[in-house]
Each structure stands twice: as structure tokens, then as C-alpha cells.
Amino acid sequence: MVEKNEELIVTIDACGSEGEGIGRIDGYALFVKDAVVGDTVRVKIMKAKKNYAFARLMEVITPSPDRIEPPCPLARKCGGCQIQHINYEKQLEYKHNKVKSCLERIGGFTVVDEGVETEVDSVDNVIVMEPALGMDDPFYYRNKAQFPVGRNKEGKVVTGFYAARSHNIIETETCYIQAKENDEILRIVREFITEYDIPTYNEETHSGLVRHVLTRVGYKTKEIMVCLIINGKKLPHHEELVRRLREVPNMTSITLNINTKKTNVILGEKCVTLWGQSYITDYIKDVKFQISPLSFYQVNPEQTERLYSQALEYAALTGDEVVWDLYCGIGTISLFLAKSAKEVYGVEIVPQAIEDAKKNAEINGIHNATFYVGAAEDVVEDLYKDDAKRADVVMVDPPRKGCAESLLDTIVAMQPKRVVYVSCDPATLARDLKILDEKGYQVKKARAVDMFPNSVHVETVCYLERK
Ligand SMILES: C[S@@+](CC[C@H](N)C(=O)[O-])C[C@H]1O[C@@H](n2cnc3c(N)ncnc32)[C@H](O)[C@@H]1O
Known about the structure:
CATH class of the largest domain: Alpha Beta
Bound molecules: S-adenosylmethionine
Structural class: alpha/beta
CATH architecture of the largest domain: 3-Layer(aba) Sandwich
Shape: globular
Helix content: 10-25%
Number of helices: 9
Strand order of the largest sheet: 6-7-22-23-21-20-17-18-19
CATH topology of the largest domain: Rossmann fold
Largest sheet: 9 strands, mixed
Distance between the termini: 50 Å
CATH superfamily of the largest domain: Vaccinia Virus protein VP39
Number of domains: 3
Radius of gyration: 24 Å
């Protein structure tokens, strides 16, 4: 047992689920944020429990060969990137193993790496994992950012990101994973707020006006959207802000989002257009999309093409299939698949996203995609029971909490030949795959796709076949 404030030297031999290094002293585990597997470090114990302790990294005595100098000077302080100090190849290995470990521990599967010969007892619950799909250049990839706005102790207007596990704003002028255009937009917003003395929002007292700035940049079109999220209905002197923002090349949409609730949720339900369109457009491969501030749209456009191509490969469409795309957002996967399918049905809970999906089908001249608003677990059950709708292939792409179990039951009852599961949380993915496996679907393949380089998040795409 160790004591609080004690200093120790330890060698890191594992990486935890939040990207932290884990070292052991006589079997007692120390969790050390910012330490890398292979590092020997001096740490200070911050919190000691019976079987493990959290320790602060004080000094890297011998650096791991996988440790690199992070390009961003704020990487250690800021909560946005957790593993920028690990070389990219190792980041991909870490994500591959994170998915593998969830599938084994939570799902109870045997997972073998593609191309690696392994002896297995039975092929029934064996998943073949293909190598993680990474980026060529894992920086400046995000097309969407939500920056909190506040004032520092001296009263200066600041924008940035929250520090890890807190709501303290780390002041940033450049972010190494966001679109570069954001730097100028944020400078204009900060100057405007300062000059016109607009109150910034204070979370504790639920007072002040400007809460966040949301930006979106079209990867292929370069169109820019700026949305100010405010705790009120009007932004004083907004004409002046609009005049300044319009000078940014490719500015396309300037909007306000009204969020007067005392909540951690960033966006409110209502948007008001101040200038230009209420949306921007962008392409995924050759499919064009309209994206409004409230709609979900994948944040890494380069990797989205890789993810969807992998999902399409797993769907193995011949042109005759009825495909369901559940949790479809603005219909990105649905429309991507529509060209290779007979019919596509998309289901999504956010009404604005379905409006976008319908418009997106129209602007692409796609006539074999139909969209429904509502919770997937309700809509699919109703359509299956009342209208006897069927499916050859089901694609699901739920939020982190995964699929409702009742939806998995309906999918099984519909007896599709194949299911493709896209997931942003390997733990809930493994839970749902276990259920599908028990109910008659064999998980054949899985692949991690790095949608969020330098962070611990990982996307996975899996292919299941009816047994
Ligand atoms: C991870 S996103 C995937 C969106 C889309 N497939 C894409 O690639 O852009 C998950 C989507 O599920 C939606 N959603 C959340 N809960 C839902 C539910 N119970 N039923 C249907 N859609 C839901 C969210 O609004 C979000 O658009």
C-alpha cells in the first residue's frame, strides 16, 4: 500500500481505457495520466485505494521509444487530446487492442488478428479483426468544433477547450486537430465580444449571454458555418459581428442557437439565421449533403469515406437488397448505400436531421431512400409488425449507449442476411454483439477506424451474418 504524496519510480507496462499509463509495484497498480508504455517515470501518489492508486507524472526518467513530443504545447493540459504524445502507429495499435479487449472481455468472443495464424477451439464465436484504418496525417482533421466562451481572472475574453474532467477553459489560439479556419473566426468573435462588452456565460450562476461558438467547415466545398450559442433570444450588435465574419473567405452560414437552459448540453432546440444559408453543404465521395447546426455529421470527413466504404464492403450489396439504416442522422450512410441497393429506409430521432436527409436525397436525385422520424426501437417495430416491412441488410450506427435491446429483438425477427454494426463505443458494441450472437447472428469481422486521432476514442465497424 502506498501513501498520498509519496513519490515512486515505476515502469509503465500497460495503457488504460482513458489512454493513461499503468505501472505496477509488487502487483499494486498505479494509474498515471500522460505516461506511455515503456516509460520509466517518477510519480507522486494523488489518491491511494486498496488495490490501486492514481499518480501524477512528475518526471520521465527513461522515455519509451513510442513517446513523441506532442506538436500542441497545450496537449497535456487540454482535455481534447489524451494521447498526442504517443506515436501514431502505436495509437492505432492501442485502439485496435481496445476494441479487441472489449469484444473478448464483455462479448465473450475469441478474436484473432487477420493474417495471424492462431489455434482456436471452435470457429463459432471467432471474430477476425482487420488492421485499424488510420489517417496519413492525423492533424487538422475535424470539420466541427464547439468552443466554450468565457472570461479569465483578468476579465479577458477567452475561447478554447475544457481541461480534462473539468469545465475550466484552457485558452487556445490554435488547435492542432481542428480546421485551421477556426483561428480567425474565434479571433473575430473574441474581439467583437470585447469591443461591445457582451456578457459571456457563467455556468455556475447561469447568467451572461454567449455560451459557445460552433463552427463547421465543408471538407470538399470549404463552406463555413458559424453558430453562436446564446443564453437569450437576441445578440446585441449582431449586424457588426455578421459584417466582420463575412470577410472570412467562404463564409456561408451565420446563425444563433438559443439555449436558455441550465444544462451541460451545448445546443438548444431553436436556431435563427443571421446571414446566408441555414446550412452548409459538403460531399462524402460524390454524394452531396446539406448540414444544419443541429444535425449529427461525422467530424472526420477523410476517415468517414474510409468508414463508409468499409461498411459498404461488409454490406456486400448487389443492387437487389432492401437495406435499413438505423440511427441514420442526415442520411449519410443511407444515401451512400442507396446507389448499390434496391431500397433504403433510414430512421433517426432528430426531426431536423430527417428534414436534411429528405432534402439530401432530393438534391442527389436519389429516389429509393425513405426516411422516418422517431426512436429506432419504436419505428422499426411498428413498421415490421404493422406493415410487414422486411430487410435483407440492416446497418446500425447508434450513439455511445448502443442499441435498445428491443431493437435488437426486432432486427433478429426481421431475419436480415447481414447486419453491419458501426459503433463509437467498443463496450456497448461488445454488449450488443453478444446479444445478437446469442440470438442467431455470427460476428465474422471487425475493424477499428480511427475517426479521432490523438484522442482515446475509437470507431468500429463489424460484419454479422445470419447463422
Ligand atoms: C453516431 S450518430 C450516426 C449518424 C449517421 N449514421 C452518420 O454516420 O452520420 C447516431 C445518431 O443516432 C441518433 N439517435 C439517437 N438515439 C436514437 C434513437 N433512439 N433512435 C434513432 N436515432 C437515434 C442521433 O440523433 C444521431 O444522429
